[in-house]
Design a protein that fits this description.
Distance between the termini: 50 Å
Structural class: mainly alpha
Number of domains: 3
CATH topology of the largest domain: Serine Threonine Protein Phosphatase 5, Tetratricopeptide repeat
Radius of gyration: 28 Å
Strand order of the largest sheet: 2-1-3
Mean pLDDT: 83
Helix content: 55-70%
Largest sheet: 3 strands, antiparallel
Low-confidence stretches: 1-7, 277-282
CATH class of the largest domain: Mainly Alpha
Order of helices and strands: HHHHHHHHEEHEH
CATH superfamily of the largest domain: Tetratricopeptide repeat domain
């Protein structure tokens, strides 16, 4: 091999040592030192995505979302299948209220994560962030619609008032009837706007759609012989850490007795669709 290959190999080895140093500093909470180590590794090997995502994680710790976005965009250009790259880019964009693109990257990270290791903690974390992002996007749109609805309601009421006073001057002997009709029109108008507003208002997740242990919305619900529904991963974790019994009823229980609760799963998906969290919970 030529001298160029040897030099490249040496740079790669040095970059890996710097990555390990950065990891060590990060674990010790020395974020500045970790950033310096990763930056040196990037300088030596600028086409290794993990060096960039590691540095982005440091910037995330400091809430420096602009730098998180910059590093993650570079990482994705190098490796389009970088789970952490798409994930942290999505978080950075959401922080800057760029919801459509941010959600797109979170969804991409979730798909890639499920394909690589569907049971990893990171898939769960991405799912939760995606849920919050979709809800925040819908809530923001809902607030805008509420303002527009209120503006339209006030304009309609003003138009009715103007019509009433114009007609009132021409009506003789029918003032009471005109006042009654006017009040009915206002009441009907307000009722229509009230119903539209209620349909668009945020809703709390019903208790029966939440895990009895974590109180979070169910994604993979399973039901026990006693009729209690839990999140599968949560009840399995309970078996491992606490023991093989039902946390609520205290009855003996093991994994073989857990049955997928398809009715609740469908109800969860219907709720999420209705309230703007429309994405696959499989």
């Amino acid at each position: 091999m030529g001298p160029g290959f040897v030099a490249l190999s040496g740079a790669a080895k040095q970059a890996e040592l710097l990555r390990k140093d950065g990891n060590h500093y990060f674990q010790k909470g020395r974020i500045g030192a970790a950033i310096e180590a990763y930056t040196e590794a990037i300088t030596l090997c600028p086409n290794v995505a993990v060096y960039l995502t590691n540095r982005a994680l440091c910037h995330r710790k400091r809430n420096d979302w602009k730098k998180v976005e910059e590093d993650c965009r570079r990482a994705i250009q190098i490796d389009s299948n970088s789970v952490k790259g798409h994930y942290m880019l999505g978080l950075a964009l959401i922080q800057n209220n760029v919801y459509p693109e941010g959600i797109k990257h979170l969804e991409k990270a979730l798909d890639l994560g499920r394909g690589a290791n569907p049971k990893s903690y990171m898939v769960e974390e991405i799912w939760q962030e995606l849920a919050k992002a979709k809800y925040r996007e819908w809530e923001k749109a809902s607030t805008k619609r509420s303002w527009e609805l209120q503006t339209l309601k006030e304009a309609c009421e003003a138009a009715l008032e103007q019509k009433y006073f114009l007609d009132h001057s021409e009506l003789e002997g029918f003032v009471d009837e005109a006042e009654i009709a006017h009040r009915k029109q206002l009441k009907s108008l307000r009722s229509v706007f009230e119903k539209v507003g209620e349909a668009d208002a945020p809703s709390e997740v019903p208790d029966y759609l939440c895990c009895k242990i974590t109180l979070d919305i169910l994604r993979d619900p399973v039901i026990t012989p006693s009729g209690v529904t839990y999140e599968r991963a949560v009840i399995l974790d309970h078996f491992r850490k606490v023991g093989n019994f039902d946390p609520l009823t205290r009855e003996l229980l093991d994994e073989s007795q857990l049955v997928p609760n398809l009715a609740i799963k469908e109800a969860v998906e219907a709720f999420l669709d209705k309230h703007g969290w429309a994405y696959n919970t499989d």
